[in-house]
Amino acid sequence: MIEIRKAQGSDFQQIWTILQEVFQKGDTYAFFPNITKEEVFQIWMEIPLATYVAVENELIRGTYYLKPNQPGLGSHVCNVGYAVSSNVRGKGIGRLMCEHSLNEAKAYAFKAMQYNYVVSTNQAAVELWKKCGFKIVGTLPKAFNHKEKGLVDAFVMYQWFN
């Protein structure tokens, strides 16, 4: 059974293990593959409004952060970043975290959620976000330098809350 809860400082080692693997692959996030643990801590744990973990049998299987997408007059729209451990991908954890993040965003009184940079070749994520109610509202041509495929498009995906 997966439990999603707010992350604690003591969770960061397991979060780092997941994120380091994801970032090193160079196929879904724009961060340099050799990003440092300290940089990731700031990005994933300090800057966001909240960070969450998906836990199964005391092991962190996934994580996401929630933050305003823009300051001031754009702060009613939130931004979220997700990562799932490679050994449990395809088991519904991404969907659970997405559904949880939508509920949390509404609880924080956000009016919409925006994904700024969904790599077009990450078809599993693109299809999942569509199933969760997101629409592609923009395409950034050749905006992502995929580690294996070279320059590929990135999508901006958006969901307004009714």
From TrEMBL:
It comes from Desulfosporosinus nitroreducens. Gene3D superfamilies: 3.40.630.30. This is GNAT family N-acetyltransferase. Residues 2-162 form the N-acetyltransferase domain.
